[in-house]
Amino acid sequence: GVSDAPTFGQAVEIAKYVSGITGVRPAFLLAILTQESSLGKNVGQCYVTDFNNGNGTNLKGVAKSRVMSPKTISSFIALTKGLGMEPVKTPVSCWVPLYSKGIPYGWGGAMGPAQFISSTWNLYTGKVTQITNKLANPWNINDAFLASGLLLKDNGGLSNESTAAAKYYCGGSYGRYECKSYASSVLRYATQYEADIKAIGG
Question: Taking burial as the number of CB atoms within 10 A of a residue's CB, which of 129, 155, 165, 181 is the most buried?
Fold first, then answer.
């Protein structure tokens, strides 16, 4: 996980701050970050080591395929180097094996607590920097919450949380079964978190 992975109480305060900027419900934002990374405790179990085909290893050195799409590798390298990080030693998500008619689809490569792929992060890094007045970092817990809230708002999260969550996971292919299942899981977390926030006086 990230070095500044928050306690639940700290995560609630960050979510409230982001809600004040984006309007996204704190419990919903917490649910997304829980689903993605257990609030920053698990930011990836793989390394990308082959920058031609996107293959890599898990954290124990076992070979893994489809760790990162070749389309996003260049932006990942530029991002990590810009932050003073080594691309081959930066953990990202592994590929979740998915097949359609026996053909694999999807990739790993998501980064940080919010689990953005690098190309998506590039769409929000300027917005995050404008708000925080510092270089945006997807592995920083506050930046990750903020970028997540901005994306959820753009996905329609102020009016339809289920669709926003499905889009968060699947992008334009959000109608697939696994996307709807993801959204259902997020909303279950959100229901519990809403009660938890009230219980601690939020």
Answer: 165
Task: Please tell me which residue, 192 or 2, carries the higher pLDDT value.
Answer: 192
Residue with tokens 């900027």: 21
pLDDT class for 201, splitting at 50, 70, 90? confident
DSSP string, 14-67: HHHHHHHHH---HHHHHHHHHHHHTTTT---SEEE--TTT--EEETTS-EES-S
Number of alpha carbons in the 13 Å side-chain half-sphere of residue 19: 15
Q: Smallest Cα–Cα separation from 19: which of 185, 200, 193, 199? A: 193
**DSSP alpha helices (H): ranges in the chain?**
8-22, 26-37, 70-82, 118-132, 141-154, 161-170, 177-199
Query: In the prediction, which pLDDT does 128 show?
Result: 98
> What are the phi and psi torsion angles at 140 (to 5°)?
-85, 130
- Cα distance between residue 121 and residue 136, in whole Å: 9
In one-letter notation, the amino acid at residue 89 is K
3-state secondary structure at position 171: helix
The number of residues in the chain equals 202
- Does pTM surpass 0.70? yes
Ranges assigned E (strand) in 84-128? 98-100, 103-105
